[in-house]
């Protein structure tokens, strides 16, 4: 039977593929250490789960407005004003089935066939696929480790054509953990104004900025705010990955377009998750702050262990919960008759020989790297990095 060209062209998520393989091996009884997961290893805070129970007990189980309840929209808007001083009306907020859905809404709302959207490398694996699914073309601008993976403004400018409609920013970044400084954000804002571009600012990790006070892109200027589609959600900050609550903040015109699309594609996100999500945003933030402190400690540990391995190195991430480790010195080396020619082979051989799961950098557009998530225990970090060190010592 026929499968559409659009569907056939979509590559499966490499991060989910690695995590699935890890879980299958774990379930079969193998002592596998997984660094692939893009989700906190903490449980959802009790007060959020209690709110979900209340939603069930009070019968909050019916359809809600397609773009989200009034309560959670108000809670999102209140958070943005409280945290960043940004004022949004409730009708500028769209609640979706996770931030990935919010990203799809954002891209679909502005993209016509052939439109180009600039994506910074290394990029989150889903950006190019979403752009292609919407009929657009991703145009890549490479950022380098020597610059802490912050792109040069000249490189972005040179990638702009008459077909360019938007720039996607991931700040803090998955996979490399970089956090954009104010000067770079200001330069991007000026560039967007000069060429009349949208900026889709994916800030899902905004609470996980370890070294400074995070700068949300629409705070740069009123013009930046007007042309920004800000994407965020509750998965990373509140350990609510399975609850599937993401959101966007944008101009009213863009929000109206996204609301119309969502009303036909999915209708409303889960009513119970919205009720719990409102509680998450309005409730005590003690669990969030404790989680951030733990991630900061793990970041220091994993970086020190990686940089203690002769063939592998990393720059210290400033946010999120990932390390993008440079494995370029490993390429061309062998383990027995197995040669490591790229990050895919590195990840495959490491998993089969040492039972350690990492994500190959090729999935993020940078084959000289692997991504390790430190959303796992200190015990696992020490065990996994010990195995990686032993693995590298065996290479010839």
| Biggest sheet: strand arrangement | 2-8-7-6-5-3-4
The whole-angstrom Rg is 21 Å
Helical coverage, percent range? 40-55%
Helical/strand content category? alpha/beta
- Distinct helical segment count: 14
* First-to-last CA distance: 48 Å
Give the SSE order as H and E letters.
Answer: HHEHHEHEHEHEHEHEEHHHEEEHEEEH
The oligomerization state is: single chain
- Give the overall pLDDT as a whole number: 96
> Sheet bearing the most strands, described?
7 strands, mixed
Which residues form runs of ≥5 with pLDDT under 50? none
**Shape summary:** globular
The total of beta strands comes to 14
Q: β content, as a range?
A: 5-15%
Characterise the protein shown here.
The protein has 396 residues and is of the alpha/beta class. The chain is built from 14 helices and 14 strands. The strands form four sheets. The chain has a seven-stranded mixed beta sheet, with helices on both faces. A three-stranded antiparallel beta sheet has the order 9-14-13. Strand 10 and strand 11 form a beta hairpin. Helix 3 packs across helix 11, helix 4 packs parallel to helix 11 and helix 5 packs across helix 10.
In short:
Helix content is 42%, strand content 15%. The protein contains 14 helices and 14 strands.
